[in-house]
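Board notes, transcribed. Complex of a protein with magnesium ion.
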Amino acid sequence: MGRIITVGSSKGGVGKTTLVNALAEFLKRRGASVFCIDADPNKNLSGWLAATGMVEFRIVQADDLVQVANEVSTSHDFVLVDVPGANSTALVNAIDISSLVLIPTKADAKDVVEAFRTYQHVVNAITKARRFSPKAHIPAAAVLSQVDRRASVDQIARKQLEGLSIPILKADLGLKASINHASFAQKPAPYSAMGDDIEAIGAEALALLETFRG
Ligand SMILES: Nc1ncnc2c1ncn2[C@@H]1O[C@H](COP(=O)(O)OP(=O)(O)OP(=O)(O)O)[C@@H](O)[C@H]1O
Ligand SMILES: [Mg+2]
């Protein structure tokens, strides 16, 4: 059974779709089979994946997400789920069936608030799962994104997230002009634009999955 990874936040524009796309390529480069689920009605991820042809994908409605993700996980190593930037049924459903939840967060107070709200969904999902399996766990971590290396505001965000007891990846995704530029061409930034950041994020994500392999 493949692992389902949700990249979610109830906040819009935090870098969810960018991270799903980059993680898909990271995993493919390591030889894994990857399937992406686009549960965002804006269909940004599927637009990108259709443009590059890099990864199989399907657009799903929130109510179909559990069934579809479960089904494709039987034939792929990883299923990556992109969700709308809102507190949504899709977000809750995706978290419920995930082996890992990554919560992208810019260094901004509103993003931190929504990271907390999203993390509460993970806590709820763990509570539900433990009714049937007492050791059930869903690892989750915030991932700082669009980090301006010339500023130190990301340290404030890290402190706030820590204060809220939300785990945070050490690795982060820097603010890259090339990612911003690519958005105007309706295509994702090339993998090389992510630099070493995505390799570091991917490695930490895989380590988290391994730690909690049940
Ligand atoms: N690391 C980055 N550096 C520069 N720009 C970025 C970076 N990550 C994302 N962006 C820009 O921010 C925009 C929003 O990113 P993205 O679409 O990945 O966020 P999202 O959380 O999926 O948004 P939504 O909630 O609208 O689906 C992108 O179009 C891109 O231009
Ligand atoms: Mg998106």
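The mean pLDDT is 96. The pocket of adenosine-5'-triphosphate (ligand 1) is lined by residues 12-18, 40, 42, 44, 85, 145-146, 173, 175-176, 179-180, 183 (CB under 6 Å).
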